[in-house]
Hints:
With 666 residues, the chain is mainly β. 7% of the residues lie in helices and 38% in strands. The chain has seven helices and 45 strands. The chain starts with a helix and ends in an 8-residue tail after the last helix. The model is unreliable at 1-28 and 618-666 (pLDDT under 50).
Amino acid sequence: MKAADWxxxxxxxxxxxIVGACAxxxxxxxxxxxxxxxxxxxxxxxxxxxxIDRNRIDIIFNENIKLEDVSNKLVxxxxxxxxxSINSNGRRVTIELRDSLKPNTTYTLDFSDAxxxxxxxxxxxxxxxxxxxxxxxxSLSVSGMVFEARTLEPAQGMVVGVYSxxxxxxxxxxxxxxxxxxxxxxxxxxxxxxxxxxxxFAIDDRNHDWHWDRSENVAFADFxxxxxxxxxxxxxxxxxxxxxxxxxxxxxxxxxxxDVLLTWFNENYKPQYxxxxxxxxxxxxxFKFGAAMDSLPEIVVANGPLQGRRLRDLSxxxxxxxxxxxxxxxxxxxxVNQDSLMVAAHYLKTxxxxxxxxxxxxxxxxxxxxxxxxxxxxxxxxxxxVAPPVTLLEFKALTSSQQELNLPVTFEAxxxxxxxDSLGWRLEIAVDTLWNRVDGVKLERDSAxxxxxxxxxxxxxxxxxxxTADSLSVVSxxxxxxxxxxxxxxxKKSEDYGNISFSFPDIGEFPDSVDFIVELLGKNDQPxxxxxxxxxxVTFRFVAPGAYYARAYVDANRNGQWDTGSxxxxxxxxEVYYYNKKLNLRKNWDIDQEWTLLALPVDGQKPNxxxxxxxxxxxxxxxxxxxxxxxxxxxxxDNYYDDQGAWGNGSQYNNAGRNSRxxxxx
Length: 666
């Protein structure tokens, strides 16, 4: 084997040892557990071989192995149209390439972390081998990491590839030229590249066509990649049998770039079409669309006495934000009593050229269960002499009996409400054994939901309140009323809450033209409160006791929300940062933290206990998560990054790399 080939396998083996070192294996009875991953012994063809014309590759290891999810983890580069056949037996792995080999091409078989030993499951991470069908082998490589842009989750099993064709349309129409997949830490290495300039992308490639489709997740670098190799000297310390140390210097090679950071996003593209429609009951017609719309569709009655009338003029409309779900509450009794309703729906639809064009559908809307109800009525004709029961309007409180000090009480009706008689309801406060009326309060419609009402009051903390409404005080558009209603609740005290504040000493390093939004997160990594940074600080008030985390993003266009990227527009998603500690808040406590946004590498920011894509490890002692120790001061272990599978404080994904999209990149 050539020296370069042995070096290539040595580097791969060293990487596997580093990753493997992140798991500390226990000692069962009978001696120490085997912590060493399988080792490469030989293969046919051998790594680095040239002029190969066989499709079968056999690889031998030093112990029995097993393959985990190898059909998904093994990547053959150049990408194969047909999946290879893969088998393992004892110490041998056999791969049969089903595509014809291309002439003068370097092939790479990258197993990622699919290989492990049979007994202990020690992972051989990053194992790959190569051969060429021509006289030479391409040897350059590009390495980096991929994260989800919104949550900084390590992207596991994502396809990363390059194009030497620098056309903007290549990623949409051509298969990636050289490919790899990310491992459990989001790391990747694209091997065996020729010298030249490349565009690099990451895609989730759901349909296995090796290029990006508009609905797939994607990441891109907005600069070209030019792989190079540099000679370097590596110093090793050797220890003799006598225990004496000696320093040995050897030649090594450094393949660059090795710090490419990609953050994937989804353009949230959805084709527009009429996804579903139904007449839930006589009074309700619902339309659901595949994507958000800027305006209401034009729905016209197509049969009956009201033919030609617009449905919106005959209804009360309840629409979700974005108008992708619209409920028409039919007000006209002619429509309500019409068993069969036909409408002509005019709306924008995505055509075969991926363009929006106006279309018209004629739809038949039948009342659900109408036939069954008629048969039931006919069967029980004798019961018709009895007056039908009075239908009451559903009315309920959406807030609990423990009322938040800073929020309104919210009520919801089962139908749109025509009116609420202000003389028919009242809010009272308990004074000793009496209920005293609270004057000057208003019950206001919710701006986002026509069936909801809010009672916003400067609550007295710790006091008991009672809201009551008479039966005829709330009447729906159909003339139905509620039964007598009562909701009693107690207001929390200010001492039941805590406050969490952040200051940002390095916020001045960002452009003045952007805002910063901070999200206080719960254990599920979802926002609990959201605030904009003002004068380098932000404070979250009225926070219930519990465990919290924090995420910030650059609001580049100052629209108050996180925006995804656009591949066609060459726009990166807005940048996201995580506070790296868990915040344990107690009652009547204030937490004040300094948060230096650019202090940590990307792979060391997100606390491990809110990561969904956690690296797999067999030793629970190595699964220590940031902030698991319930310390009140929020102390933090400087060795945390190693436990997260990150590359430590020396990570090449440093501040400059993190913000490369605002500089020259790479």
